[in-house]
Every structure is written in C-alpha cells, then in structure tokens.
Amino acid sequence: MAHLLVTGGAGFIGSNFVHHVVAHTDHTVTVLDKLTYAGNEASLAGLPEDRVDLVVGDIADAELVDGLFEKADAVVHYAAESHNDNSLHDPRPFLDTNIIGTYTLLEAARRHDTRLHHISTDEVYGDLELDDPARFTEHTPYNPSSPYSSTKAGSDLLVRAWVRSFGVRATISNCSNNYGPYQHVEKFIPRQITNVLRGIRPKLYGKGENVRDWIHADDHSSAVLTILDKGEIGETYLIGADGEKDNKTVVELILQLMGHSPDAYDHVTDRAGHDLRYAIDSTKLRTELGWSPTYRDFEAGLAATIDWYRANEAWWAPAKDGVEAFYASKGQ
Ligand code: NAD
Ligand code: TDX
C-alpha cells in the first residue's frame, strides 16, 4: 500500500485515475486541486473518505506542495490548464500552472526524493499531415503549435532536465485525445453531445477533416498505473489506443447515436493554427510494460458516454451556458 498525491485529481482525467486507483489498488490518495473552472468536487463523489481526501490549493504554492510531498510515496501530476481554445484567448494561466506549477512540483520532488509521474499530451509533437501514414513515437522531435501545447512541451522538458541534472525519479507519459464521462463541456465530444441534448446544432471547426486519436479515459488511467508500477525512471511512454477518427465522422456518429440526421450540424470558424492530425504509436508501452487498452469499440464507448451525459445533466449544466457564450463570441 502506498500514499499517492494526485494533482488535478478533480479534473476529467485526474478524477478518472483516482476512481481507478481506489478500484484496482489498496493505495490511499490525496488530491491537490485548485478547483478552477475545470475542477469539480462532484467528480470525486462516492469515493471512500478513509482512502481519498481533497486539498484545495495551487500546485505553484511551494509551501503547500512541500507539506504534501512530505507525506506522499509518489506523485502523479495531472494538474494543468488543458484547453487549446482558452490558451488562444488568454495564455497567461497556461504559463503559471503548466510551467511554474510543474517547476514547483519538481523542486519538491528533488527536495524529498519523491517518485513523480508527469502527465502530458501528444500535442507536444505538433501535427502530422492528413495523408501521412506516420505516427508519433518517443523519438519524434518536439514541435508544439499552440500556447497550450508549448507550455506542456516546456513542462516535459523541465521534467527531463530535473531527471538528468538532479536525479529526480520521474517518468513522463504523452497520451492522445481522451473521451468518457466527467469531461468538461468545453471539449469537442461533450460539447456536441450536450448541444444535441439542449437542441443546439453541433459545431464543427472548419471542414472537420482534422484527425484525433481517441482513447477512453479508463484506458489512460490503466496505462498510468502501469507506468507508475513498472516504468523505468527517466523514460517517456506514449499512450494511445489506435483510435484515429476525423472530427466530421465523430460528429456524424454522435448525431446518429442520438437519433438525429447525421448532417444536422454547422461548420463554424476554424481554430487558429489548428493541428491537422495526431496519431500515437504505443508499441513501447505495450511491449516493454505489457499494457493494452480494454476499449476497442469506439462506437460503444461513445454510446456509453452519451448515456452518461444524458443521465448527469446536474453535473454539466452549470458550465454549459457560459461555454456556449464564450464560443459564440469567437464565431464558434
Ligand atoms: P481538466 O481541465 O479537465 O482538469 C485539470 C484539473 O487541474 C482541474 O481539476 C483544475 O482545477 C486543476 N488545476 C488547474 N490549475 C491548477 C493549479 N494551478 N493547481 C492545482 N490544480 C489545478 O484537464 P484534463 O483533460 O483532465 O487533463 C489532465 C491532464 O492530462 C493535463 O495535464 C493534460 O495536459 C493531460 N492530457 C489531457 C488529454 C485530454 O484529451 N483531455 C490528453 C492528453 C493529456
Ligand atoms: O466545438 C468544437 N468543434 C470542433 O470541431 C470543439 C470544442 C473542437 N473541435 C475540434 C478541434 C479538434 O480538432 O475537435 C478536435 C478536438 O478538440 P478538443 O476537444 O478541444 O481537443 P484538442 O484540441 O485535440 O486537445 C485535447 O487533446 C489533447 C485536449 O483538450 C488536450 O488537453 C489534450 O492535450
């Protein structure tokens, strides 16, 4: 049994990981989360109080972080500003949390010699051409496009430097696009599902040809636990489940699964600098650490996600109007 500190554990993927840890291990967990607009205590509802506690605070608060590292056997770092569109509107919080926040955790890991796993994204590698069969590997050069992905790339490079320069015991994972329950309605799939539930037409950026490599959040969590258990210090692991789909196909599938005509959506203003395609080659994680995904049927995973949003309007409704007003102000 170990005690884990999970930063950003009230967000979409962090809360999924906390539920996963409680279900599959006997570890205890402290969540450190600032509860920004993206954090939601309700995502941790139902977890046993004797195994999970929530500390509301900022990962860039060195004193608070130091006290929490004192008690942790390992730290899993999810906390981030995570939305590309927000980073195009106001980049500053992305620097504060993704760069300075990660730096603050690394300094604490160095002081306490604490094992740290850093959660990152495939977006650090930039994008691939639509007609290129190549996929990202651990050797793909960094080439981020947006303020969000550049701050994530910066945070990864800080982790690598702290491993090499100070012997910090860290690993990194770069995962592709996640879907599943508890994802904020600003993101593509929940936005479209909740639009349909509200009688609003789904909104596709540009032509909708951009490709994302979808993985269920449960599979991301099982991969992170595998890396925490078996990963080699200093190594990077790419996490993906061979789920490439273009955005148009996803919107059409959502509409069809929800009983609407598949063309009942609008094309809206494209995202500035919109990455064309992401695709992950996760051979290293699969062969070296023996991980594999359990969700192999995207349509079934999407249908279950739609059911979750249908049944949990109280969870997402408070954020919906504000998100749509923000997008409307951008012509999206
Ligand atoms: P999210 O926006 O849903 O959650 C982020 C969480 O971090 C929130 O609970 C928020 O309150 C918290 N947070 C933000 N700033 C903080 C701060 N300064 N101190 C403490 N807590 C803070 O994000 P997500 O989609 O769950 O992403 C989690 C991590 O996974 C991020 O590091 C992201 O880069 C990475 N990632 C996400 C995806 C994806 O598809 N969503 C894919 C690959 C990697
Ligand atoms: O309304 C929309 N219409 C649309 O066409 C929205 C919100 C998005 N899109 C497009 C943009 C992308 O091509 O859908 C795709 C997915 O968009 P997002 O959900 O914003 O995700 P993305 O920008 O790909 O980044 C996500 O995956 C990698 C996460 O938000 C990041 O945190 C993660 O690092």
From TrEMBL:
It holds the Pfam family GDP_Man_Dehyd. This is dTDP-glucose 4,6-dehydratase. It comes from Microbacterium aquilitoris. PANTHER family: DTDP-D-GLUCOSE 4,6-DEHYDRATASE-RELATED. Its cofactor is NAD(+). InterPro entries: dTDP_Gluc_deHydtase, NAD(P)-bd_dom, NAD(P)-bd_dom_sf. It comes from the Bacteria. It catalyses: dTDP-alpha-D-glucose = dTDP-4-dehydro-6-deoxy-alpha-D-glucose + H2O. Its EC number is 4.2.1.46.
